[in-house]
Amino acid sequence: MEEVEQQKVNKKVLYSAVQPTNALTIGNYIGAIKNMVAMQDEYTCFFAIANMHAITVRQVPAQLRQKTLSLLALYMACGLDPNRCTLYVQSHVPCHAELAWVLNTFTYVGEMERMTQFKDKSAKHADNINMGLMDYPVLMAADILLYKTDVVPVGIDQRQHLEICRDIAIRFNNIYSPTFVVPEGVYPKVGAKIGDLLDPSKKMSKSAENANGTIFMDDDRDTIIRKFKRAVTDSDSEVRYDPENKPGVSNLLSIYTAFSGKSIEEAEREFAGRGYGDFKLAVGEAVADKLAPVQSEQARLLSDKEYLNSVLKAGAERAYKVASSTLSKVYRKIGFYQL
Ligand code: TRP
Fold first, then answer.
1. pTM of the entire predicted model
2. Domain-embedded: residue 80
3. Is 118 in the pocket of ligand 1 (CB under 6 A)?
4. For 203-214, how does the pLDDT look when each residue is reduced to its tens digit (9 = 90+)?
5. Which comes out higher in pLDDT, residue 3 or 188?
6. Which residues touch 239 (CB under 8 Å, ≥6 apart)?
7. Given phi > 0 = left and psi -120 to 50 = alpha, else beta, which region is 9?
8. What is the CA(222)–ligand 1 centre distance, in A?
9. 110, 229: one domain
10. Does 140 contact ligand 1 (Cβ within 6 A)?
11. Domain with 221 in it
12. Mean pLDDT of 294-302
């Protein structure tokens, strides 16, 4: 029923995936999840849990399994609705691995060796520079191309991967005939990114050295308020948005507006003549107030594993329909004998 509707209205396809590894931060929430929720009606959306990408660095099996479900529950708790978008686990749709194999033969070793993230991760995991780590961008290209994706919203760190995906698609289309939709990357505007609370010049990251600069989606109220109390500000005491001269305060204002729904101007007026102590407490409370219902909904969903499984099963089936049609087209073009 929904599928018929999705096909009737000719919406553009949006594809995104997140690895079920570390906890997500409020930076991910503001920069990605909130937008995904807002876009789920405007586009035909596929959101994958990229567990096949995750194993390119060693994972603890029980944790990988658990994080897969908890990421699904978090997505849903934030407002991604399995009736309006397709939520699925990458390994549940075998077409990803199958297309990646074909695309490997249209990708040069030299191109992969030059990837910035491959070089970074090779340095970080020098004892495990496996083929999967090197092949990561090809699997990502397969993810995107299988769904005839028009747009891919990603962070700047994934830009090189998206560019190689486009190159591979164009290369294949030129050798055979138009087969793949060539996707566009959509990158967040500069300034849209949330900085670390202790060093606002750095992006708030799930792998920051000091966890006190990062608010995780599963931090409890006391932790959130404590972390905001310690956030760096500056030596005057004016709550004013000026990223150049007041990076700490401006970062807090960005967070406050994202979580309270108020504008920067409203927030500046609200805290005029009040000290930073008041301001930081208010930011912490706004974030904690917003996260509390998300966290309890996530916990409620996680206690109903049967329901979550049914969501993933339906998602995988819907994804498979689209993915297998693309794969079969590719197999035909390259000359695989099909039954
Ligand atoms: N590499 C992405 C990341 O770590 C995750 C990812 C996997 C992805 N496949 C994708 C993102 C396809 C967008 C489209 O952020």
1. 0.90
2. yes
3. no
4. 898 778 899 999
5. 188
6. 249, 253, 267, 268, 271, 272, 274, 276, 279
7. beta
8. 32
9. no
10. yes
11. 211-298
12. 98
**Residue 199 domain-assigned (yes or no):** no
Cα maximum dimension of the chain? 75
Tens of pLDDT, residues 51-109? 999 999 999 999 999 999 999 999 999 999 999 999 999 999 999 999 999 999 999 99
Q: Mean of the per-residue pLDDT values for the chain?
A: 94
* CB 118 within 8 Å of CB 133: yes
The CA distance from 71 to 23, in Å, is 8
User: In terms of C-beta density within 10 A (0-12 exposed, 13-18 middle, 19 or more buried), how is residue 108 classed?
Assistant: exposed
Parallel, antiparallel, or unpaired: how do β-strands 44-49 and 13-18 relate?
parallel
Q: Is residue 96 part of a domain?
A: yes
Q: How far is the CA of 270 from the centre of ligand 1 (A)?
A: 39
- Over residues 186-204, the mean pLDDT reads 83
311 near 72, Cβ under 8 Å?
A: yes
Q: Pick the catalytic residue from 11, 34, 193, 206.
A: 206
